[in-house]
Design goal:
The chain is of the alpha+beta class. Helices cover about 45% and strands about 15% of the residues. The longest helix is centred in the C-terminal third of the chain and has 26 residues, at about 70-95.
């Protein structure tokens, strides 16, 4: 999952995700900073717990001036943390708190946390 993308509504009121290039660098930087702060804060309180050791702090921290390739690199690192945590969450909770959408390895699927039933 990439950093949360801004959404716009089309005429049928369906949500449409906007690509990063459509919003400009400053809102993107702001959104990534918010995501990184939230990952540091919230995942330390969840189960499974993700504590910010040195390596995780490095992954979550921005490097240099955040524009162009550096901004994309940071977005990719945050995406890796989110994907890794979702994999751990699925391993921890299984289908009790996750849903799998899709059918198999060949065609693809998505695992997402889901509220407990």
């Amino acid at each position: 999952m990439s950093a949360p993308l801004p959404v716009a509504r089309n005429r049928q009121t369906e949500l449409v995700l906007l690509p990063a290039r459509a919003i400009g660098p400053e809102p993107r930087r702001r959104g990534l900073r918010q995501l990184a702060a939230r990952l540091r804060r919230d995942l330390a309180r969840k189960r499974p717990q993700l504590t910010a050791n040195g390596e995780l702090r490095r992954l979550l921290a921005p490097r240099g001036v955040l524009r162009g390739g550096a901004l994309k690199d940071w977005e990719d690192r945050l995406d890796a943390v989110v994907c890794g945590y979702i994999a751990a969450y699925y391993w921890w909770w299984g289908e009790k708190r996750c849903r799998v959408f899709g059918d198999d390895w060949r065609r693809g699927y998505i695992v997402t946390p889901w509220p407990p039933q």
